[in-house]
Specification:
- The protein has a seven-stranded mixed sheet, covered by helices on one side.
- The chain is of the alpha/beta class and 171 residues long.
- It is built from five helices and seven strands.
- It has helices spanning 3-29, 74-87, 102-111, 125-129, 158-170; strands at 39-42, 52-54, 62-66, 92-97, 118-120, 138-142, 148-153.
- A hairpin with a 5-residue loop joins strand 6 (138-142) and strand 7.
- It has two domains: 1-30; 35-170, Glutaredoxin (3-Layer(aba) Sandwich), CATH 3.40.30.10.
């Protein structure tokens, strides 16, 4: 084997190792922050009090709803999510928008009667970690350990969401 070929193979091996390490780092980083948590600033509107909360409290199942005020299917999705919020008191539910305008989000929330926490992710950290940028609305259901159990992009009916939530909450 000549010198050039050895250098090429060594370089490829190093690149492959770095890629694997990067993938592992990315996967273990979903959930971000200490102990796999993202801390989100909620808006003082509806079911939010303007405090900072974890995206998934430890030991609790969570439903993450990624939305935008300009997203047509996000409007009817709110009514379906309100049914879920009313039905499952043991589910942490949070809606997350990466929009800059807190006033636009608050107006949307008030108009559509949001009753659970709503937060901003203006730096896109959680949206990028979960791979939802440009995919709205997206719902992600996490079990008590934070493992993703279900994901759906697009409008989801309350019955189909409730079926998945029941499996996680009762499981």
């Amino acid at each position: 084997m000549d010198q050039t070929r050895r250098q090429l193979l060594a370089g490829l091996g190093t690149a492959a190792g770095a890629a694997v390490a990067g993938c592992t780092s990315f996967l273990s980083g979903v959930g971000g922050g200490a102990n796999g948590q993202f801390m989100l600033s909620t808006l003082d509107v509806g079911g939010s009090d303007g405090s900072t909360i974890p995206h998934r409290p430890a030991g609790e199942p969570a439903l993450l709803d990624f939305f935008a005020t300009w997203c047509p299917p996000c409007r009817p999705q709110m009514a379906e999510l309100r049914v879920i919020d009313d039905r499952f008191s043991n589910l942490h539910m949070i809606s997350i928008s990466w929009e800059e305008s807190a006033s636009a989000i608050k107006g949307f929330w008030q108009e559509l009667d949001g009753t659970w926490p709503v937060a901003q992710d203006t730096d896109l950290k959680i949206a990028q970690a979960y791979g939802v940028v440009g995919r709205l609305p997206t719902k992600i259901l996490l079990d008590r350990t934070g493992e993703e159990q279900w994901r759906h992009t697009g409008l989801s009916g309350a019955a189909s969401i409730a079926e998945k939530v029941t499996q996680v909450v009762d499981g």
